[in-house]
Amino acid sequence: MALRLTAKVFEKRFCRFCQAAKKFNRAAYSTTTDPTQDAEYSDIVISGGGMVGAAMACALANNKFLKDKKIVLLESQRDTGDFVLPEKYSNRTCALSPATIRLLDSFGAWKEIEAMRCHPVLRMQVWESCSDALITFSNPDMTESLAHIVENDVILAGIMKALKAVKNRVDVRYESKAVSYKIPEGHDPPEQKQPFVEMILNDNKVLRTRLLIGADGMNSEVRKAAKFHTIRRDYGQSAVVATLVLADGPANNTAWQRFLPKGPIAFLPLSDKLSSLVWTTTPEDAKHLLQIPRESFVDAVNDALWNDRDKNAFAGQVFDFYKNLLRTVLPGESNTIRQLPPTVMDVQEGSRAAFPLTLIHASHYVKPRVALVGDAGHRLHPLAGQGVNLGFGDVQCLSDILGRAAYNGSDLGSLPHLLQYETERQRHNVPVMVAIDGLQRLYCNQFTPFVVLRNLGLHTVQSLPFLKNAIINQASV
Ligand SMILES: Cc1cc2nc3c(=O)[nH]c(=O)nc-3n(C[C@H](O)[C@H](O)[C@H](O)COP(=O)(O)OP(=O)(O)OC[C@H]3O[C@@H](n4cnc5c(N)ncnc54)[C@H](O)[C@@H]3O)c2cc1C
Questions:
Q1: What residue owns the CA closest to ligand 1's atom 31?
Q2: Cα 93 from Cα 55, distance rounded (Å)
Q3: Number of domains forming the structure of the chain
Q4: Is 20 among the domain residues?
Q5: In which pathway does it act (predicted)?
Q6: Which of 155, 216, 267 to mutate to test the pocket of ligand 1 (most atoms within 8 A of CB)?
């Protein structure tokens, strides 16, 4: 009898608990509006219309399995209208890998970019100021390009033109951003109980979506709102960028990078006469480089490329001995052809700028109903020119996986296929990030044993074509 009474009381309380839970669930997902009434619904919302977010929108719009899905792209900046290619080159550029070009080509953006402007890189030469060790990369006969240098504005304009061509597939909203988010929490398929991410936009409208894609850059608000654990390392360095005018010389199709004690200096070919500068140094030096007169800046750049001040005599002797030894062990080892870097004549007026450098990596790229792409998930040192390429890789992968999920009739925001995206991308991105971070640490160290080791390592790779080809292939995917 007592047992039955206890069971009844328990049943009553349990029912009350269930009702309260249902009420709470409803309240959490119908803040200002009812789902079927005032709130707007979209299958996928992309927050951030930079290069990666816009490419995400374009890839989804062209995915045949997502044809019936409603897609919204929110960009906080204003619409600058149809892009008119300025005569003057921009100081913000990216080296695009062959894999990125294939992605852009798949949805028609690459032909738009080619019709505007881009410049091929046929050869790369990397060396350092402490010794004569160097490494060069090129495809056989220098016919195929290793990368293309394109201004960021041109990349974005090419993608937006391609997006316009897929009429009305994506609802692009400028000056629009979420001011608050309600995101499902926990890992016990909460997406089943919580069918939407709900956002209140800056115009007070409520927007619900099955899947929110955070493409809102290194300070991603989506990443913060969804409470992704994030690893950060401030490099204590800044990248000085500028557009350089080169002296007459051979065809400008080599990318040059010289490691200096305070960070690497790189020239990326923009046209026959112009190169884009990315010079990593201390924040104090960066500030100074932005303030000095143009002529002094040009002198400083030429000095950084040519000076012999940092040569380490002991490391040089060990390197010469190793080079000769390798020549006897590997008789076929070709003599490295050292090309002389170009001389800078001038810097374009107003093209100098500096950016602080940070490494950011979200430990996870997905949560129920949320995925991060591009710099929102990972921001890295620009020394290998991989940042946006990794972001475009995310786009390709997530678009393929969402297409398959839609084909199978799955909920787009559910965790199982989002986890496939995370696994696939972290397997690719994490080793790249670790390698670049390792290179940055290795080359900022002037301790002689480090200098010796990196020289020997660099020369070994230079002498073994299969290793170099493996690096080229890895950078192309
Ligand atoms: C000096 C330098 C050189 C580089 N060189 C290379 C290179 O050679 N190759 C390479 O691959 N990478 C390079 N990178 C890295 C590359 O620039 C970045 O990886 C790339 O810009 C990231 O693009 P993204 O679209 O992810 O983010 P972002 O470019 O930051 O775009 C984010 C977008 O989201 C919008 N936004 C922000 N918050 C919100 C919000 N709350 N709601 C809506 N919209 C929002 C912003 O307005 C912006 O349009 C370089 C970086 C630097 C600093």
A1: 50
A2: 17
A3: 1
A4: no
A5: Cofactor biosynthesis; ubiquinone biosynthesis
A6: 216
